């Protein structure tokens, strides 16, 4: 095992996630955050938000928690 292996494994995991959700592991910009807040407050489901923002449902939930919209 080399020191590069964990990094390579992490890199391939990120690439796999991005194949499913193109914005996986990308930073949220303020515009997308504001849109997310608005969409969530208007009643959109997490699954709908995940599709719209090209992120996993876990990423959407994590962002909503960070924004203190869910526990």
What structural class do helix, strand and pairing data support? mainly alpha
End-to-end Cα distance = 40 Å
Average pLDDT works out at: 86
Compressed to H and E, one letter per element, the order equals: HHHH
* Fraction of residues in β-strands: under 5%
Instruction: Provide the helix percentage.
Output: 55-70%
Number of helices: 4
How many whole angstroms does the radius of gyration measure? 14 Å
Number of domains: 1
Biggest beta sheet summary: none
Number of strands: 0
Low-confidence stretches: none
Shape field: elongated
Folded structure, characterized:
With 71 residues, this protein is mainly α. The chain has one domain. It is built from four helices and no strands. The longest helix has 17 residues. 10% of the residues are buried.
Task: Give a brief rundown of this model.
The chain is mainly alpha-helical and 71 residues long.
Defining key terms:
71 residues; mainly alpha; 66% helix; 0% strand
Topology, pairings included?
Elements lengths: L3 H17 L9 H12 L4 H8 L3 H10 L5
